[in-house]
Amino acid sequence: MAEILSDAPSGRFRSIRTKLALLVAAAIGLAAAVSTALAIVHTVQLAVSSEQSVLMNTARVFAAAVSKGVQAGDQAAIYEALAGIRKFEGAGDQIEFVGVEDLDGRPLADLGSAPRLMRDARVEPGFASDLWSILSSRTLQASAPVGEPGYPPVARLIVIKTSDGLLEAVRTTLLVSVVSGLVALALGLLAASRLQRAITRPVVDLAATMARVRDGHDFRVAAKAAANDEVGQLVGSFNAMIAGIRERDVQLALHRERLEQDVSDRTRDLNLAKIAAENANAAKSDFLATMSHEIRTPMNGMLVMAELLTAGDLPARQRRYAEVIARSGQSLLAIINDILDFSKVEAGKMDIERIPVDPAETADTVLSLFWERAQKKGLDLAAQVAPDTPAHILADPVRLNQVIGNLVNNALKFTESGHVLLSIGRDPHDPSRLRFAVTDTGIGIPEDKIAGLFSAFTQVDQSTTRKFGGTGLGLAICKRLVEAMGGAMRVTSDVGRGSTFAFSIPVEGAATRTLARVPLVRGRAPRAIVAVRGEATARVVADLLAACGYAVERREADALAGAGLPECELLFAEGAVLAQGLAGTRPARVVALTTLGDGSERRLEARGLADAILARPLAHADLALLSEGLALGAGLAVSRPDRGGRERALPQFTGCRVLVADDSAVNREVAVEALARLGVQADVAADGREAIAAAERGGIHLILMDGSMPEIDGFEAARRIREAEGREGRARLPILALTAHVVGSAADLWRTAGMDGVLHKPFTIAALAESLSGFLEPAGQGAVAPQRHGASTQEPDPPSPAEGEGSATLLDQETFGELEAMAGADGGAFLRRVAGLYLEHAPRALAQLEASLGGDAADQARAAHALKSMSFNIGAAAVAGAAGACEAKARENQDSVSQEEAQELRLLLDATLEALRSRVFSAGGQEAA
């Protein structure tokens, strides 16, 4: 049994049988002890009562017998009476002492040898002795008064008797109780023995069965069924458990037999699935590569030809058609690039470079790319570069620009009014990281939609896609790129108030910029007033000046017009407001902020109203130069807005010959025409064999090599040209891959083929010029690069009202002169059509503005913007300026245009329309529509 219960608590083993016997014995013994104690107590009480009665009666009898002798003083009579005690029936043989004493305790006579002890138990009335003192005393004592009845006693008789009879009664009672208890114990053990056979034996048998199962792991055994009681239920449960284990073992045995085959089958299935997945991934990559090549090849011809068309001499309407084609092609190309970039990220083939990057220069680049779009929507776009921003960090400039540009593009897309601010600075939670954040005042994002923003092909809702467009890939790509650069995207948003998209990347060993501080003026910080339009721009300027040491105060831009200035050391204000002139003393330093097309820079420059002129968007490089000039107290550099509307001259490679190797006649024509715009003499080759032959003939300075060509493809042709150069000792001929492959295995073949660079289709003329500049020496500047968004979107600069009288103050002579030149030989028909359209639509726009007075400021801003835009295009400078002021008031300040301002604008428009009729339509000519 000890082995059976080896897992039981440690200690000497006791069987259930022993425990049951001990339990019965203990119960019977306890019962016998209790009954014996009760019997002894009862027996003693009865015996004491009997002894007390006998002893008191005896004392009274002898007290009466000696009464006469005591009264007569006859001692002989007293002894004679005492001697009769021996003969007293029932007590004589137990009485050991009889004595008479007077009331003072002096003995008169006594008989017997027993000593009188203090511990003798007294049983006469008036003395209460407990049972223990009676049982522990050897003798019992009683006393009775001696005297005539009815008279006071004259003496006292004392009788002492042994307690042997009482002890004998106790012994007899104890013996009877013990014998009774033993008999009861024997009967109990006999009953327990019979009970053990009914209860303990099945339990013992079950324990022995369990021991066999444990030691032999034989689950075929079963315990014998017991009676229909709890023990029987225990046995039944054990047998059911054993049966279940037996069934499990059978199943495990069968599973072990099939396991090896299952593992083999599943391994084979896994390998097949892995091969299928790899084939599917390879097929996807091949498909993407093929799709990219097939789409980009015709797009190359479309986009380059559209670009050439926009730069050509076309009528205005046809020019707009070409611009639409170019913009649509660029949008399609952007979608394709998003899909391909996402595919690269998914395939883990997106490489991240780590080269020095200037974060401030990145901010300036992004602002220059998106400023025109922000200006069209009437949004304030600015970048804030914190003073503690490192001068250079190690990052991928292309991918960093891609992420920031996408965030700014989204912010502009979903913002109808207010501003978009790009912030760059140290991460407040981890200074070892640089934080980039784009904040807008747009529609915001519901909290429950933020989690799904970075999922591929996901928009906040379908209406967003319908209204704003997009593939839903931009943010997914940004998230992957940021993670590849060691950062994480974070989004906070408030519906209806705007959103902030932020990420931070680690910076390693980057030195912090130092910002020059201006000296104190009479022991105090110099005071600066910032009064420019646009919350974001004003914040950037105010923070920069505060970091330079100025005490900055912000004012509303238009509040300075006609008002006196408080004393200050620096005024940073709107150029259009400064050009109107300011009352009061001119501050020591005046910086003007102008907007392309407002015409204020000419007046500021001519009148010397500003020490420096900065143009929107505010470039950090200009702000850095400004802060340095302010700190040194030197002259401030003047930065003029770009009057060319972001046009730039293309480099000319006169005298250079370039070989165009492409199997597509369309692609060759496009490349030849684009090269001609750059002053390059172009030769052509239809396949790789002709390209190799042309390289061997010599006389060319560079090859534009298409990758996919018949006979010998471009990559193999490049390898053979490199081999021939090494074999013959020829100088290395620059070879640029001209390919539409941007993903797949063919995308990187140009590297292994020995080519020097790659120009992806579709390309722009500017991109072609930039690629050639790395290998050819430009001979000068020539043609102007066509605008991507078209020249018609530019707004000419209005002149100062002081530049002329009459119609000259209403119409911009420069703009109007350009319109007249465009009319050319058509007899002014073009100019009349444009003027007629203005005469028709300008009053409508003003009527819409007047109808919205007192209503929604956004409706007023849209109507004023429409009037301003068409007025700029026609050269109506005064109307454009007044309409622009109304638009700024409604859009930026959310303030309704007043009736007086609308009336003033109507007077200007009426005068302008009259001047336009006089200028365009002769007295006998046509009337305007």
UniProtKB/TrEMBL annotation:
Enzyme class: transferase
Domain spans labelled HAMP: 197-250
Reactions this protein catalyses: ATP + protein L-histidine = ADP + protein N-phospho-L-histidine
Record's subcellular location: Cell membrane
Domain Response regulatory residue range list: 657-776
Ranges for domain Histidine kinase: 290-509
Pfam assignment, any one: Hpt
Modified residues (4-aspartylphosphate): D706
Region Disordered, residue ranges: 779-807
InterPro entries, A to Z: CheY-like_superfamily, HAMP_dom, HATPase_C_sf, HATPase_dom, His_kinase_dom, HisK_dim/P_dom, HisK_dim/P_sf, HPT_dom_sf
Keywords: ATP-binding, Cell membrane, Kinase, Membrane, Nucleotide-binding, Phosphoprotein, Transferase, Transmembrane, Transmembrane helix, Two-component regulatory system
PROSITE patterns cross-referenced by the UniProt entry: HAMP, HIS_KIN, RESPONSE_REGULATORY
SUPFAM superfamilies, alphabetized: ATPase domain of HSP90 chaperone/DNA topoisomerase II/histidine kinase, CheY-like, HAMP domain-like, Histidine-containing phosphotransfer domain, HPT domain, Homodimeric domain of signal transducing histidine kinase
Membrane-protein topology: Multi-pass membrane protein
Domain of life: Bacteria
MF (Gene Ontology): ATP binding; phosphorelay sensor kinase activity
Protein name (database record): histidine kinase
Origin species: Alsobacter soli
Lineage: Bacteria, Pseudomonadati, Pseudomonadota, Alphaproteobacteria, Hyphomicrobiales
